[in-house]
Amino acid sequence: MSYVDEVIDLVVEKNPAQPEFHQAVKEVLESLRVVIEANEAAYRKDALLERLVTPERQLLFRVPWVDDKGQVHVNNAFRVQFNSAIGPYKGGLRLHPSVNLGIIKFLGFEQIFKNSLTGLPIGGGKGGSDFDPKGKSDREVMAFCQSFMTELCKYIGADTDVPAGDIGTGAREIGYMFGQYKRIRGLYEGVLTGKGLSYGGSLARTEATGYGLLYLTEEMLKCNGHDIKGKTVAVSGSGNVAIYATQKAQQLGAKVVTVSDSTGWVYDKDGIDVALLKEVKEVKRARLTEYAKARPGAEYHEGRGVWTIKCDVALPCATQNELHLEDAKALVAGGCIAVAEGANMPTTMEATEYLQENGVLFAPGKAANAGGVATSALEMSQNSERLSWTFEEVDGKLKNIMVNIFHNLDEAAKKYGMEGNYVAGANIAGFLKVADAMTAQGIV
Ligand code: NDP
Ligand code: 2IT
Hints:
The protein is α/β, with parallel strands linked by helices. It has 17 helices and 12 strands. Strand 10, helix 12 and strand 11 form a beta-alpha-beta unit. Helix 5 packs across helix 17, helix 8 packs across helix 9 and helix 12 packs parallel to helix 13. The longest helix is centred in the C-terminal third of the chain and has 25 residues. The radius of gyration is 21 Å and the shape is globular. The two termini are 26 Å apart. The model has no long low-confidence stretch (mean pLDDT 98). NADPH dihydro-nicotinamide-adenine-dinucleotide phosphate binds next to helix 9.
């Protein structure tokens, strides 16, 4: 049996009931096959793949907190410190009722390669909890965040592990967590990114993932003879990534006609009104029904359905496994030319294969959404030098990083005989740097 197949089997056997983690490992290792086979004896002797798929450290802890009525609740929390070969662990914290260890491991594993692709010195990690911030008062969210950080603060630091936002963790949650870290550890340091601008946050971090997604998509289209200008775009999600992806797409002259949330979706043929979307989602924290009510031309539909809308470019920006095979078929039938993942692993493996087989340009999340973590690394740099850069400076660096990422994965795919396969290109380019650093650092 080949080394790649052996390690895939091992992951499935040793990590039962973690389907998302299995999926992420399979997707990466399958596309690394040619690279691994070229150096199989050495990698096998060093157990390089076994080390790559096994987190360096996994923290599991309980988070007790008190609600506004005096009732105590207990949530499960996680921080997976996956790989520190090229830098301190770096990755977000997800707060959502669906969170479990397998989901955090899939996200942490993806983060290793994504962070490597940014070209910046950051290792891979991820964390979170099954706490649901929806419907909680600010005081309840603060109580959770303080209790969560009371435990987590023992294991993180500006030079060891630097968490950030993800689903359910935005500026409010990061603020409460930073305050508690500082209080307990007595350190004013860049231990979290995505901080507010008044206490060490970077300009353009809020926008970075969505903007970065569009910078990479624009470059991918350009290099394949298309222009983003004038394109019709379908976006899913209506959170941080979706909002700023929509904004940048419109700035670049495209028309975004859909957004969604966990209960339904909106089709707005005139183009999404970003100011209204921000008001509904960032200020009121309300459902998309509120958007549709305030916008007479927009249709609201319950359930799933964004990918039934005819578009040139599809940008899944909500969550994992939200774009299925039948959605891929509908997109191809509707003439879609490009899919770029704003979310982490939003496209199932069957859907990805179908899109690629049908000539759709496909940019995987670990490349396309790397602008968020890249800008987090720029926030770390600013914190270290105790300076703040201008919006234009950060945004300019972000754009360079995204354009470079696209060319790196394009070249890696070509070099290994898989021209146009950006999934393989991203995995190969991300892997080679980490594997080289792991090899150089010996058996650790
Ligand atoms: P937010 O919490 O800001 O928004 C998430 C959006 O996705 C919301 O619209 C939410 O709906 C929807 N959503 C979440 N879970 C589900 C679900 N199970 N089914 C359907 N819809 C769902 O998160 P972000 O925008 O930050 O994150 C979106 C994706 O992007 C995630 O995959 C995340 O890992 C990834 N990502 C985020 C980065 C960042 O910098 N924030 C960086 C790179 C990747 P509702 O409003 O109803 O909750
Ligand atoms: O998935 C991701 O890359 C993020 N949620 C952002 C991580 C970060 O450290 O900014």
